[in-house]
Amino acid sequence: MLAKSLSRFGALYKKQMREMAPEMIIIGGAAVLVSLVLYLKLGSVRIAVLMAMMMVMGLACFLPIVSSFRLGQEWNNHTIYLMMSLPVGGGMILGSRLAALLTQYVFGTLIVGICGLLLAGELAPELYDNLDLILPYLDIVVLFYLCTVAWIGYLISVSFFSQIIGKLVSRFSGLVTIVTFFATLWLSVKMMGLMLGQRTIEAPDVTAQIFWLLLGVITLVAAVIFALSTWVYNRRVEL
Amino acid sequence: MIEFRQVSKYFGTVRALDNFQAQLASGRVIGLFGPNGAGKSTTLKMIAGLNRPSRGEVLVDGLNPWMTRDRVAYLPEVDHLYPWMTVGKAAEFISTFYSDWDHTKYQDLLNYLNLNEAMKIGKISKGQRAKVKLLLTLSRRSPYLLLDEPLSGIDLLTREEIINSVIRDYREGEQTVIISTHEIDEVEGLVDEVIFIRNGKTVLSGNAEDLREEKNMSLVEIMKEVMRSAR
Amino acid sequence: MNFDATQPIYRQIIDDFKKKMIRGELKHGDRIPSQREYAEMARVNPNTVQRAYREMEAMHMVETLRGQGTFVSIDQEMLARMKEEMAQSILNYFISEMNALGYQPSDLIRMLEEYMQAKEAEDQ
Lengths: 239, 231, 124
Fold this sequence. Notes:
A: 10 helices
């Protein structure tokens, strides 16, 4: 049973990755290209380097959210007929998409990150002299990164939810999607605020605790929205 | 067996099915005939679990159609395949989801329909796309086969290939085929039972041969008569 | 085989075999196509072919031997009877059609004679 589910999930995941391959190549290519240009041309103007890399990083972060809106396209080009007739539930269909989009995020950010680090090594090697100052805080960095992954996952879940709600109506589908997106965003952020506000934090290792808390809250809210999306897909969506 | 119990279906204010009652016997080829908008596609989609009745219930082998999707091979009227996939990749993808996928059948049909695995679905002709859809649907030993307008917009020769494939493939008594089409004359010899549907209701149903005997008319002529009087 | 969609197809399948047997194209002991082969050749639903074959078996026109196929099992007496039945129904049809056109039985005999004389002259 598990093997069957895994192979199905794998097939869906591979299909998603294949669909997103062009974007990933573009991001990877952009990161490498920009880095090369910066290295060869603008090495002296540090601000320019920083800005350029931040823009590419921004792209890498933003792209999965934009890609997540591809879900609605399945209705437009009728491939949703194939998706819905496959004997699997919304959990797998949406889950594989989420996994692929998160893969895109991790891939993009890591490529840009690595290019950035390499670039820094060449253009500002003095930063690496102070490495021992940064190392103790490595776990915080990782936690911070995980929080960003959770945050992207959360945004993708909201995107899925609003698109699916949009597909429940035959007219003004786009409008409903947008309204649902922002409404859900607003509500869930409020919820997160509430959940965070009630926590007390104890003295040692404050920063790590904050990030663990943040990670937990974001993941929980994302999971709830994701579960709701799955429920609506399974029970309410019709073709 | 597939049962429609007093099924009504509304899409907004449009009534697609109106107290639709039917029992589709197993192991037969059933023709679903009627004008555009009669409710044929809606009926097939309901069996495939892609939409739900507003009232009444649909049962496939006594179960909710969402649960029996693994027993149903559904060929929609629309182009539902990913255009960037090749035939081979699409087959590989789909086969992962169905335990009744039959690779021998797939190879056999691939040859019979003159298709090859390297063809990119988005780049082939309409007729070839129709054949690919059929290939991927028929390459399973599914108890239920639903064909929604498999012949529409297809050239004559390809239509013949498609019908021949369905006949070749059909396992009498084991498989239930439900075919909805406007080209009734092409499927005269193919169907065992017929359901004539109009405005979401059954206007006539029965065994094709018995109807021919009774009325001395072809199914095409019966359709015309039945639709005229149903106004 | 092109069939007339206004009549039950399984009957036409049986008639097709009857005619072949009467004409001597199919003789006692000859193998006829399997149901599946026939269905594919004629582009007809295998269920319909099954119905036809079953009736033919019930009429003892054919018999199926397990693992070997279906064979013509008709004997001379049955064949002669079948031939006569077919001839009779064609005759009935001919006469009723001619009656519908307004021809009397006496007309029919005259017309047949004239027709046969003309044919003979043509052949010479």
